[in-house]
Amino acid sequence: MKITVVGTGYVGLVSGACLAEMGNDVLCLDLDPEKIRILKEGGIPIHEPGLGQVVARNVAGGRLHFTTDVQEAVQFGTIQFIAVGTPPDEDGSADLKYVLSAARAIGRHMTDYKVIVDKSTVPVGTADKVKTAVQAELDARGAAIPYSVVSNPEFLKEGAAVDDFMRPDRIVVGAEDDQAIFLMKALYAPFQRNHENS
């Protein structure tokens, strides 16, 4: 499956590398050119045991790629994971500006069906805001392109994130339409088998 991961921070890089490890073709997008330079040169901008080896193996295998090009990233993957930061706002709530900015970018550049996945740590109701942001961009373009918004929170522990992703004790997916559910089930099927074998 072709997958785009928006954000190469803790959640994004672990998710992208582990999805590539399962044979998917993954493009990770980050607007920070320094982060992408480090990754393209074989470095890892965050410290997480085992992650460097997974990234290196999948880059060498041609399944994991990195870019700063938003249009390229949106057009690459049918499934678009939004895994950007949600720093606490002044009132302590999650600041969704990066999530909604990513959603608008997808709406601006998409040309075919997308499953847009909230992977960032976000409050209830965020899927509706993401949907509204994408739709506003499509409306501005006069484009009627189908898409689905899915909630898929992560449960990664620092220091054990690779193992947590590869052998999850639970996978939570919230979706409203059959096509998105079918694609997400297909994407996560190998991880469920992993868990059964552990």
Structure description:
46% of the residues lie in helices and 14% in strands. By secondary structure, it is an alpha/beta fold. It has a single domain (2-197), classed as Rossmann fold (3-Layer(aba) Sandwich). The protein has a 6-stranded parallel beta sheet with strand order 3-2-1-4-5-6, with helices on both faces. Helix 1 crosses helix 3. It is globular. The two termini are 24 Å apart. 37% of the residues are buried.
Total beta strand runs: 6
Q: What is Rg? A: 16 Å
In CATH, the topology is named: Rossmann fold
Overall geometry: globular
Q: End-to-end span in angstroms? A: 24 Å
Furnish the topology, listing elements before pairings:
Layout: E1 2-6, H1 10-21, E2 25-29, H2 33-40, H3 51-60, E3 64-67, H4 70-76, E4 79-82, H5 97-109, E5 114-118, H6 126-141, E6 147-151, H7 161-166, H8 178-197
Parallel strand pairs: 1-2, 1-4, 2-3, 4-5, 5-6
Helix pairs in contact: 1-3, 5-6
In short:
The chain is α/β, with parallel strands linked by helices and 198 residues long. Helix content is 46%, strand content 14%. It has one domain (2-197): 3-Layer(aba) Sandwich (Rossmann fold), CATH 3.40.50.
Characteristics:
six-stranded parallel beta sheet; 6 strands; 198 residues; globular
